[in-house]
Amino acid sequence: MPKFSDLDGEKAVKAARTIVEGYVKRGDVPKIDVPESFRKNGGVFVTLKTYPGDDLRGCIGYPEPVAPLEEALIDSAVSAATRDPRFRPVREKELPLLLVEVSLLTPPEQIAVSDPKELLGKVVVGEDGLIAERGRSRGLLLPQVPVELGWGVEEFLMQTCAKAGLDPDAWKDSKTRFLKFQAEVFSEESPNGKIHREILRG
User: Fold this and answer.
1) Contact, 123 vs 64, CB < 8 A?
2) How far is it, in rounded angstroms, from Cα 142 to Cα 45?
3) Using one digit for the tens of pLDDT, what is the confidence trace for 117-141?
4) For 147-194, how does the pLDDT look when each residue is reduced to its tens digit (9 = 90+)?
5) Which of 5, 62, 130, 144 has the most beta carbons within 10 angstroms of its beta carbon?
């Protein structure tokens, strides 16, 4: 059952856009309107995409509930716009052509397996996000990623390993640990436009 209402999601996306626009334009974080439930700790990712085309422009977040959701949302929005090491900071002229997406996460849980091959039956594309860990290496992919790119479970496992800087086949090694989580995803249909809840399908 969803933890967040459509109104919660709408407020989260509008807040993320307000933060991104305020920080890019003026270098400060404006006041935002969020639900009371956002005072509690929660995991969140803010994703920015270009419009049209849906090309990734920035994605940063908190995989685990280590801070109040409001604080995590603010930091994630600023970071997605200005601190994602894969991209240069967003410029003001880009703001009218940015799509904002917010993913509200459940706490990650380790996937218990006696044989790595069991992972193939314990990960559901369109439902689960993944975290791969080995030593100091760690990589995360949100549940919408394999859906958008048409991956099956094995490709999802491989790409999560690659995101962690590991060999793609590292998922077959019992020393590689996987955690999974779910997300309620809310996104703009067009820049600053209608906000909808993403229904993920495998």
Assistant:
1) no
2) 9
3) 999 999 999 999 999 999 999 999 9
4) 999 999 999 999 999 999 999 999 999 999 999 999 999 999 999 999
5) 130
Q: Looking at residue 51, which CATH number applies to its domain?
A: 3.30.700.20
CA-CA distance, 70 to 48, in Å (whole number)?
Answer: 18
> Residue 28, by phi and psi: left (phi above 0), alpha (psi -120 to 50) or beta?
beta
Q: 20 in a domain, yes or no?
A: yes
Cα Rg of the chain, angstroms: 17
Same domain, 77 and 127: no
Residues 6 or more apart whose CB falls under 8 angstroms from that of 1 comprise none
**116: number of Cβ within 10 Å:** 17
User: Distance between CA atoms of 181 and 132, rounded to whole angstroms?
Assistant: 12
169 and 79 in a single domain? The answer is no
Query: Exposed/middle/buried for 97, CB within 10 Å: 0-12, 13-18, 19+?
Result: middle
* Residue 58 per-residue DSSP state: E
